[in-house]
Write a structure and sequence with these properties.
Blueprint (H helix, E strand, L loop, with lengths): L1 H4 L18 E2 L14 E2 L5 E7 L11 E3 L6 E5 L2 E3 L3 E3 L3 E2 L11 E2 L1 E7 L7 E5 L2 E5 L10 E3 L4 E6 L2 E3 L6 E9 L5 E9 L6 H5 L12 E10 L2 E7 L7 E8 L5 E9 L2 E10 L4 E2 L3 E2 L7 E8 L5 E8 L4 E9 L2 E2 L3 E2 L7 E8 L5 E7 L6 E8 L2 E2 L3 E4 L4 E9 L5 E8 L24 E8 L2 E5 L7 E4 L9 E4 L2 E7 L5 E7 L11 E8 L2 E2 L3 E2 L12 E5 L2 E8 L13 E8 L9 E3 L17 H10 L1 E4 L2 E8 L18 H10 L4 E2 L5 H4 L2 H13 L7 E2 L1 E5 L8 E5 L13 H5 L7 H13 L2 E4 L20 E6 L30 H6 L5 E5 L9 E6 L4 H9 L3 E4 L4 E6 L2 E2 L3 E4 L4 E21 L5 E6 L3 E9 L8 E10 L4 E4 L2 E5 L2
Parallel strand pairs: 52-53, 56-57, 57-58, 63-69
Antiparallel strand pairs: 1-2, 2-19, 3-10, 3-14, 4-7, 4-11, 5-10, 6-7, 8-9, 11-12, 13-14, 15-48, 16-17, 17-18, 18-19, 20-21, 21-22, 22-23, 22-24, 25-26, 26-27, 27-28, 27-29, 30-31, 31-32, 32-33, 32-34, 35-36, 36-37, 37-38, 38-49, 39-40, 41-42, 42-43, 43-44, 43-45, 46-47, 47-48, 50-51, 51-59, ...
Length: 968
């Protein structure tokens, strides 16, 4: 029975104390702004339990029922439809077909109830299927108890309640506890602004798709003397802010810090609040350098001020910075990290002796490593390595205990993270975005680094693949650690994972475990914590337990059934006795197994060669910009395999060292406004003009024959266009095309965007019934997650239905589009899981967002599976162009490979005919330069040429075509 329970989505967690309990929500005063924390009171006692009803059902059954308690004692029933004061209506449900291999055919009904009863009182329950009873004090922590012969389980969970209103998306809470016991909370509320007029947008009127009157606001609330109340707005409305932090000084002054986009530049800001006077100080600008400064965290300085750490741009890369703020004054920023690579994810904590600890992760040796540094009276010691093996070690969270020991939790994955990976990639492979993840814990004390003698484990998740040739894999995936140390000195780690072993749908929940002695506690789930992956609960500790505030959107299966994000409060009482943790000495670089072989030992030189290469045509100078725009994330992962949105920026900045990137989530998260806003915000936050460009991109998906397309804009603020309704509009006809696609083209023209079809010869592809050469100038000819869609005899292309991934639609091969006269440049991008084998390389006049759009519109681009330099011209004309010549066409071709070039093939297509191979070369050298003339053309012939390169390591590159009219 226990093994079966982990398959179901639960909404429970651990036991809440008898005297710390449910909060009755009061009406929000009219004077409070939307998004303000709701008032809540604390009753004398309460017990929360989670019921799973119908665990043995083979077909759906009615599990409606009621508590046999006085009405006033049933404080809340969540997760099912409430019926009257003490009852509910609920049924077990059929599991979707695609999950039945991982789950029983019927999923139980799950409810969370909060009861005002003594823990020793008998609680009777009557359901349609039978009666049972229990006493709360007989239920074990995180261990369900079975009733009705195993058809029902009951377990105690922590009391938790919503503490913010539902008019806005409330997110990113941070907590701080004052010496008087008051718990302060800051959080962000996002208001969507003017609604989209979907009917108008479907009729070609797109003005409402440009966001207006939307934005963020930071709020302050507190829990004091049994009451949770809203305090005030920290900022104005309609701002563009990121992840606030709050700290309380020894004298009771609050400091609130955050990142904010002001006039196009992200900087760190701070503001003090004096509770005694209920008064805010002025807003102080903490950072002032050009470039983005973000991810601010704060710790007390023991007096009237605070220490603020953040991730900031230094002109070449991201460093971690530290500054002291006090009333009316900001200290000079101190550079904490000094590596020549990007440093990420600062964490901060103050020890009992006043030492300020700062942690971060860095990519300085080609993989992520964790470091900490101590600051005493503003003077920093040496950087101390915590985890510096060849593995992926990132996202630290830190805390100190009463003995002054520093605890560090961080995220861990296998070596070569983000390097070459694809479902059909047959060569040297790395590790994809989110195949496996672990949480590690280490402690630093008296110069020694130690770790628990046993590792923390969690539920194994299934990873099925779209490629039927590839078998499913089971792996542990836990991430986004948050560390806290309770009053007994035990380290707690809160983390996110998928609640189902099947791993289907974009749904994650928060869990916690603590370490004592030589063992980890049972896994504890925070009630009602489902939502996206990158969610961090905020924790405040006192002698009685842990206050936990977290954001949730109440999704049940995937992002599409999510609700408005709001905050919940949970109380986890301290229980048990203190027990010294059993640890072992560890080296920061410890690594089990042989040292990994680099996937690309010469990658830095390959990238630099491309970056420094220039093409001069007349007065124009073009540069090569490497990127892609089809990376999925937690917003449209379909299952637990793409990782948080932040991974896109880490991958683009560090692992692939790209010049530009665009995430490719479906309609920015299936058309939901809040995921769109988070994506738009981060696409600005990590954008550095001239070095790393982030395009505003999303995937718009309709089945064959209309097809999936990836959309790109150079400007922020444009929402996805709604689809037309009905098959006649979505698919149209082969002769006249699809009205829905034509509306997409009109939308792109209105906002200055472009799009590109992908996986064109699959069930996601197209038969090319629609095309606009200005608005759809390129095609994704190769996709790292799947195959090459050039033509069925090409390398890595599907030969037929038995060889394909997700359907075989031969009319969708790119050669068929060329035969029909479509003018399409070529690019390659990745899609799910795949990394580092798909590049869309544009030849741009300027390294700007607008320059990338313009290069694609001119089809000055090519597709590649590696950092292959490809330069194909005809006279003064570059690949992608259409022109007339008087002499026989001569192609001047230059290739600088990452390995020797085994073959170079020239493809020709005469107007109205199918393309053919007309020339083949076998250079067998890494650098190739040759010219080829086509002397068999008749005058007046219209012809197209492109080049495909295949290296000895079988990696490919495709030039965009040239369209030539030979008119001597």
């Amino acid at each position: 029975m226990q093994a079966r329970l982990v398959r179901y989505l639960s909404i429970g967690g651990i036991l809440a104390g008898v005297t710390f309990a449910f909060y009755h929500l009061a009406a929000r005063p009219a004077s409070q702004p939307p998004g303000a924390a709701s008032a809540a009171t604390l009753p004398v006692r309460a017990v929360a339990v989670r019921l799973q009803l119908g665990l043995l059902d083979e077909k759906p059954a009615d599990w409606s029922g009621q508590f046999r308690l006085p009405a006033a004692r049933v404080l809340a029933i969540e997760g099912v439809e409430r019926s009257g004061a003490t009852g509910w209506r609920a049924k077990s449900t059929v599991v979707p077909k695609n999950l039945r291999q991982q789950e029983p055919p019927v999923r139980p009904a799950v409810l969370l109830a909060t009861l005002d009863v003594d823990a020793t009182q008998l609680v009777e329950i009557e359901t349609v299927q039978g009666r049972f009873a229990f006493r709360p004090n007989e239920l074990e922590w995180a261990k369900p108890r079975a009733f009705l012969k195993g058809a029902v389980t009951v377990e105690r969970v922590p009391v938790s309640v919503p503490i913010s209103a539902a008019q806005t998306h409330d997110d990113f809470p941070a907590l701080a506890r004052a010496l008087d016991g008051t718990v302060w909370c800051v959080y962000v509320s996002y208001a969507p602004g003017d609604p989209v007029d979907e009917e108008a947008a479907r009729n070609g009127k797109f003005d409402s798709l440009l966001a207006r009157n939307n934005g963020d606001q930071i709020h302050l609330a507190r829990y004091q003397a049994g009451q949770w109340n809203y305090v005030a707005a920290v900022t104005g409305e309609k701002r563009d802010v990121w992840k606030p932090s709050v700290v309380v000084t020894a004298k009771g002054t609050l400091w609130i810090v955050w990142a904010e986009n002001v006039n196009g530049n992200w900087d760190i800001y701070a503001r003090s609040f004096e509770p005694a006077r209920n008064d805010f100080g002025p807003t102080l600008r903490v950072s002032s350098a050009s470039g983005p400064d973000t991810n601010a965290v704060a710790a007390t300085d023991g007096a009237m001020g605070a220490w603020v750490a953040w991730q900031g741009w230094n002109g070449k890369d991201f460093d971690i910075w530290l500054a002291r703020v006090q009333p009316g004054e900001v200290g000079q920023p101190i550079r904490v990290s000094t590596s020549p690579a990007n440093d990420w994810y600062p964490a901060i904590a103050t020890g009992i002796d006043g030492t300020v600890w700062v942690a971060w992760d860095t990519y300085h040796k080609g993989d992520y490593d964790v470091y900490v540094r101590a600051f005493r009276n503003g003077v920093g010691g040496d950087a101390i390595p915590v985890a510096t093996s060849p593995r992926y070690e990132a996202r630290p969270s830190i805390g100190t205990d009463s003995q002054g020991r520093l605890w560090v939790a961080y995220e861990d994955a296998d070596v070569n993270w983000g390097k070459d990976y694809g479902q059909r990639w047959p060569w040297k492979q790395g590790v994809p975005f989110y195949r496996e993840r672990f949480i590690k814990l280490r402690q630093l004390t008296a110069g020694r680094l130690v770790e628990p003698v046993v590792s923390m484990t969690a539920l194994l998740h299934d990873t099925p693949y779209d490629d039927t040739f590839k078998v499913s894999e089971y792996a542990q995936r836990t991430s986004i650690p948050v560390l806290a140390v309770d009053s007994l000195g035990r380290p707690w780690i809160f983390y996110r994972r998928h609640p189902l072993a099947a791993g289907r749908g974009e749904i994650w929940a928060s869990y916690a475990r603590y370490y004592q002695g030589g063992r980890w506690s049972e896994e504890i789930e925070l009630p009602g914590s489902t939502g996206r992956l990158d969610v961090k609960p905020a924790i405040a500790v006192d002698s009685r337990g842990l206050f936990v505030v977290y954001s949730t959107d109440d999704r049940r299966q995937n992002i599409r059934d999510s609700k408005v994000s709001h905050l919940r409060l949970a109380w986890i009482p301290t229980f048990g006795t203190a027990e010294e943790p059993v640890m072992r000495v560890v080296s920061p670089e410890i690594f089990i197994g042989s040292r990994p072989e680099p996937v690309h030992p010469n990658e830095a030189q390959d990238v630099e060669r491309l970056r420094s290469y220039r093409i001069r045509l007349g007065t124009k100078e073009l540069r090569y910009l490497r990127g892609e725009f089809h990376r999925h994330t937690e917003f449209s992962a379909h299952r637990d395999w793409d990782g948080p949105l932040e991974e896109v920026w880490r991958y683009g900045w560090d692992v692939a060292n790209l010049d530009w990137i665009g995430p490719g989530d479906h309609d920015y998260g299936y058309g939901l406004d809040y995921p769109w806003w988070l994506t738009q915000k981060q696409s600005d936050m990590y954008h550095v003009p001239g070095r790393f460009l982030i395009m505003f991109t999303y995937e718009r998906s309709t089945p064959y024959p209309s097809g999936h397309r990836n959309v790109m804009f150079a400007r922020r603020g444009i929402r996805p266009v709604p689809r037309l309704q009905g098959d006649a509009n979505v698919f149209g006809t082969a002769e006249k095309g699809a009205p829905d696609v034509k509306n997409l083209y009109a939308y792109l023209r209105y906002f200055g965007g472009i799009c590109a079809s992908h996986t064109t010869a699959s069930d996601m592809g197209t038969d090319w019934r629609d095309h606009d050469p200005e608005l759809e100038p390129v095609v994704e000819i190769f996709q790292g997650h799947r195959l090459n869609y050039e033509e069925p005899n090409a390398p890595m292309a599907p030969r037929g239905p038995e060889d394909t991934i997700q359907g075989f639609r031969p009319q969708g091969f790119v050669w068929n589009a060329l035969r029909k006269g479509l003018r399409l440049g070529f690019q390659a991008s990745s899609d799910h899981l795949s990394t580092h084998i798909s590049y869309a390389i544009v030849l741009a006049e300027e390294a700007t967002r607008e320059g990338i759009i313009q290069a694609f519109k001119q089809r000055h681009c090519y597709a590649a599976q590696d950092n292959i330099l490809l330069d194909v011209r005809c006279g003064q004309h570059l690949m992608g162009e259409t022109f007339v010549i008087r002499e026989w066409p001569r192609l001047d071709i230059r290739v600088v490979g990452t390995a020797p070039v085994a073959s170079l093939r020239i493809i020709r297509q005469l107007e109205g005919q199918m393309p053919t191979y007309v020339a083949s070369f076998e250079p067998n050298q890494q650098e190739v330069q040759l010219s080829w003339s086509d002397r068999n053309l008749e005058p007046g012939t219209r012809v197209m040429y492109y080049v495909r390169v295949e290296q000895h390591d079988r990696k490919l590159a495709w030039s965009s075509p040239l369209w030539i009219e030979y008119r001597p």
